[in-house]
């Protein structure tokens, strides 16, 4: 699955990431949908995702192959323009989604769990 372009990996990664976030929020005991949406935005916004990627990179948890995926995603030329954020933040958020998508497509649930544990324990 390494031959997918970064946008394709980010597409699936976005869905997987959101499932982890939603499950975490439900497990936290948040029951009202409005409150769930409000809390989820902290994790799924481009700004939040960009910050989490930076934190993960600082922790040096990625191997060389994973770093290559992140760099490819961050540097991928995109036709879409971000709403409500700058292009650099958007590219970092896309890179986080892409690495999660890559890991998911390669059945590396352990690494996804490691990443999501770091992200979700941050709050």
Q: Could you name the ranges where pLDDT drops below 50 across 5 or more consecutive residues? A: none
For the biggest sheet, the summary is: none
Which shape, going by the Cα principal axes? globular
According to CATH, the fold-level topology is Ribonuclease iii, N-terminal Endonuclease Domain, Chain A
Number of domains: 1
Quick one: CATH class? Answer: Mainly Alpha
Query: How widely separated are the two ends?
Result: 32 Å
Question: Order of helices and strands, N to C?
Answer: HHHHHH
- Strand content range: under 5%
CATH-derived architecture: Orthogonal Bundle
What topology emerges from the helices and strands here?
Elements: H1 6-27, H2 33-44, H3 46-58, H4 64-75, H5 87-105, H6 109-120
Overview of this structure, please?
- By secondary structure, the protein is mostly helical.
- It has a single domain (6-120), classed as Ribonuclease iii, N-terminal Endonuclease Domain, Chain A (Orthogonal Bundle).
- The protein has six helices and no strands.
- The termini are far apart.
Care to give the gist of this entry?
This protein has 123 residues and is an all-alpha fold. The protein has helices at residues 6-27, 33-44, 46-58, 64-75, 87-105, 109-120. Helix content is 73%, strand content 0%.
